[in-house]
Amino acid sequence: MRLDPFVRDYRAYLDELAGVVNASTTRFYLDTSLLLWLVRLGATARREFLTWCQRRTVKVPVWSAHEFHHHLVENTLSANVQKLLGETQKKVDEFVRLAAERADEVVCRDKGFAGRQSFVSDVEQTFLKFREFAKVVGDDAGFGSAAQEVIDFVNAHVLDSDLSPIVERLGEVGELRYGHRIPPGFRDNKGENRFGDVVIWEEIQRDVRASNPTEPVDAVFISRDDKTDWVSAARMVAVDDRLSKANRDQDLDVIRPHPLLVHEFAAASSNGRIYILQPGFLATVVDYASRGSGSRNSVATWIAAAHRPDLLPELAGAGLAQEAPTRPAPDAAPAASAAAQPAPLTAVAEQDPTLRDIMGSDISGDVAAYSEALPREQEETIRKAQDELVAGTASPIEFGRLLAELALEGRAEVSDRIPAIVQGLKGKLNPTSLDRLVLAIAASAFFNKYAELLKRPRQELRSIVVTFESDDAYRSAFVRLRGFLEDKGAQLPYMPGSGRQKVPFKFEFLDGSSGPRIVRQVRVGDQTALIDSVSESSDRNLSKLFGRSASEGFWGKELRMLIAEQYFIPPDLLSDQLDKKKYSWLPGTGLVPIDTTSDGGLSATEDDEDIDRE
Asked: Are 567 and 494 in contact (CB under 8 A)?
């Protein structure tokens, strides 16, 4: 047995792993936690992982399959997601209340907000955003198909291990390993499945040994768990002669198996090597190998799904990939040509741009190049554009349109950061450039690329538009937007740039109801906002919008925030007098859709599918 060095070479480790991952003889074994993660994963990322597996020898230990089956039967995966969402929702709600209590005009301005009102509005928008995020994260509509896809994969790759001899010796072997801190699993202090890791480890060794290897056989065990009793983590990492503390969040780590596992596996594999990796680090290795060889590998969504979004640009392996050529991965595709990279944004003339100038900006090439790029390249594109804006060599209109179009394409890593990106440019751009940047983003919510008025504004940009209008710094941009809208004859429940005038907002109730009062109608301005006989499957149905049944009711604040969100109205412009009272609604009640061509901006006659497209 050999002990691992105190300081470990990061680049050498990546090169070593790249060779192992690409070798046709390497065997990959999947932990239960990895299978559960695949079910929870989005369809695109899951497809990337399973496609990558198709070209390799991937096996599922019987015990992993057994535990996976248990979780499916007990529905623990879905239950845990809903529990986490509920707990997080409660914390967010507590924070919103605390923020409203403590917000002070002077402090808010000192911290960079326009004032208390702007700060509270931003916090409320965050509350609304979380509700939208929760709807996506908590939607179980695709759970069945995802589970079946993983079940089919497991059935095609499960080992045929005979567990009887392993289980018979568990009492003896398991207790010995635990009592003497012999990996794996000696830290699993749980009543059920205490020796699960030991069973999986025995299966892996027996499978390798059964192949009667005459040459070394390498294996990779992939798990979503930390597996701290399987591995020997690095204290210090050397990156090109620079010493650094290990940072797992950034994949800056050299994680070796525990020396005793290395010793045991060598005996079973003719001196082969064993590795324990998390799927995020594995994706980083795949990316490193393919980019180092000048190829592009289709694991971008897998990488993004396995890491915190804000850490994607900081992943340690990404910065080294092009400096250490390795042989291409089996499923690598040709690298993008230089022509596919985003071109520098060109400066615009100083005269006030027309609506057609703004919406007609040709940013299709930049959008396509961003979509094809890997996460680090995407972040660099946005960062470079900001630098060009500050230097005065790029167009704020084109950059604003680029941000808006990426948000419309569902690029959450961009849409979530648009307010922060613009906030970061305050003080760096002159007022004219800042106005044009905000105007280009906001106009994209109401007009298509031909400068035609959309019947329904783009819901993907609603919270961004409302957040910007709540900031006095962008007032002139919204005055211009109002001019564009009025020139096109737009009708809206609230007209952006109208001086932040209060919007009449009141409830009408059904008489004679017991319990929480039943809201029969809501009036926004002179228009009715509720309609009955809405299908339960409609996105406008209140049950779907609130994520609960009418019997559970809602608080007045929830309906106020929902109306603000759906109709592009800053929340503070709607009366909060009924916020702290609880109400209910009649089954089948839904919101009237926004319609810029109807009186008052609402139309109860429009069909759900009548949505403008470019």
From this structure: yes
- Which residues, 6 or more positions from 493, have their beta carbon under 8 angstroms from its beta carbon? 503, 524, 525, 527, 567, 568, 569, 594, 600, 601, 602
Identify whether the C-beta of residue 444 lies closer than 8 Å to the C-beta of residue 403.
Answer: no
> What pLDDT is recorded for position 349?
39
Comparing CA positions, the residue from 370, 342, 405, 396 lying closest to residue 614 is 405
CB 359 within 8 A of CB 443: yes
In eight-state DSSP terms, residue 252 is: B
> How far, in Å, CA of 524 to CA of 503, rounded?
7
Q: Is residue 6 a contact partner of residue 256, using CB atoms and an 8 Å limit?
A: no
SS3 377: helix
* Residue 612 scores a pLDDT above 50: no
* Amino acid in position 159: L
d(CA 203, CA 217): 15
Per DSSP, helices labelled H in 293-340 are 300-305
Closest by alpha carbon to 586, among 504, 505, 493, 511? 511
pLDDT tens profile 550-568: 888 899 999 998 998 889 9
Phi and psi angles of residue 429, each rounded to the nearest 5 degrees, phi first:
-100, 150
Beta-carbon contacts of 440 under 8 Å, excluding residues fewer than 6 positions away, are 358, 361, 396, 397, 398, 399, 400, 401, 404
565 neighbors 495 (Cβ within 8 angstroms): no
Is the pLDDT score of 350 beyond 60?
no
Q: DSSP string of 9-77?
A: EHHHHHHHHHHHHH-TT-EEEE-HHHHHHHHHS-HHHHHHHHHHHHTSEEEB-HHHHHHHHHHHHHTHH
Could you give the CA distance from residue 487 to residue 495 in angstroms, rounded to a whole number? 13
Burial of residue 14, with CB atoms counted within 10 A of its CB: 0-12 exposed, 13-18 middle, 19 or more buried: buried
Cα–Cα distance list, 407 to 135, 362, 464, 483, 565 (Å): 18, 16, 10, 24, 17
> For residue 251, which amino acid is it?
D
Q: 43 CB contacts (<8 Å, ≥6 apart)?
A: 142, 146
First to last CA, the chain: 65
Quote the Cα angle for 150-154-155, to 5°. 120
- Higher model confidence: residue 490 or residue 243? 490
Inform me whether the pLDDT recorded for 347 exceeds 60: no
| Per-residue tokens: 251 | 């994949």
Q: How far is residue 534 CA from its own chain's centroid?
A: 31
- Ranking 193-197, 267-271, 458-462, 542-546 by mean pLDDT, the lowest is 193-197
For the chain, give the longest Cα–Cα distance. Answer: 85
**Tokens at 588, concatenated:** 């089948």
Confidence category of residue 164, pLDDT binned at 50, 70, 90:
confident
Q: How many CB atoms lie within 10 A of CB 205?
A: 18
How many CB atoms sit inside 10 A of residue 43's CB?
A: 12
At CA 458, angle to CA 136 and CA 473, rounded to 5? 105
Rounded CA gap, 159 and 565, in Å? 51
Q: Is the pLDDT of residue 348 over 70?
A: no
Q: Report the DSSP beta bridge partners of residue 296.
A: 333
Using one digit for the tens of pLDDT, what is the confidence trace for 144-159? 889 999 999 999 999 9
Q: How far apart are CA 156 and CA 54, in angstroms?
A: 11
How is the beta sheet containing 219-222 ordered, strand by strand? 57-59, 27-30, 219-222, 274-277
Residue by residue, DSSP assigns 125-155 as HHHHHHHHHHHHHT--TTHHHHHHHHHHHHH
Nearest to 430 by CA among 400, 366, 473: 473
- Which residue's entry shows tokens 């025995």? 202
* Count of CB atoms situated within 10 Å of the CB of 48: 23
